[in-house]
Amino acid sequence: VYVTTGPKPRIHAEPRCWSRIRQNDVVEIVLATDYHGYYSNLTRTVFTGGLSEEKSKALDVFLEAHQTAEEHLRVGVKFSEIENMLKELFERKGYGQYYVVGFTHGVGLLTEEDPITTIVVPHRQYIAAENMTLASVHAPLTIPKIGTIKLEDTYVIKPEKAERLTSFDYKITK
Question: Strand locations in the chain, DSSP E?
């Protein structure tokens, strides 16, 4: 479990043990759980103090990106095609500068395994194969003065569409 909080965005799971969750913080919670030696990956963003208009807009844009990736993940699709769709969506909505490239990574015997499109550039050219297990959308929006917004689920790639293995509410406020 990784928990990051506060208005200072984190690009990747960089927990700061001295951080405290405060009212109106954006809190990113990453769960990597295993079942009989196989991992899944689930990330949700919690908005303490509710959703301001600015936070709500950013979350809605990320939800649209998440849905876009889910709709296009299937056998035979090149990861770079989906990556380009997401980059174009974020740019069109005004969030291009806050998007971290690399929307997916493998999940299985490790929490993060090949392909790792965030840090291994050649992996972005991989083609989705049947029964690949992937986490998506791995790359967050890192917005100054708001924080890190990320929604990530685990999928098994099937010929017609990706089958989501994880499930939890997407809009979480307290």
Answer: 2-5, 26-35, 38-47, 104-106, 113-116, 133-136, 141-143, 147-149, 153-157, 162-164, 172-173
Q: Which domain holds residue 143?
A: 2-173
Residue the block writes with tokens 């972005």: 124
Give which of 24, 34, 27, 22 is closest to 10, Cα–Cα: 27
**Inter-axis angle of helices 53-72 and 79-92, to 10 degrees?**
160
2 near 143, Cβ under 8 Å? no
Q: Using one digit for the tens of pLDDT, what is the confidence trace for 97-146?
A: 999 888 999 999 988 898 888 777 787 889 999 999 999 998 889 999 89
Distances (CA, A) of 143 to 15, 90, 100: 17, 12, 11
Q: How many domains does the chain have?
A: 1
Tokens of 169: 């509410």
Give the CA distances from residue 163 to residues 34, 104, 134, in Å, rounded to whole numbers and listed in that order.
18, 15, 10
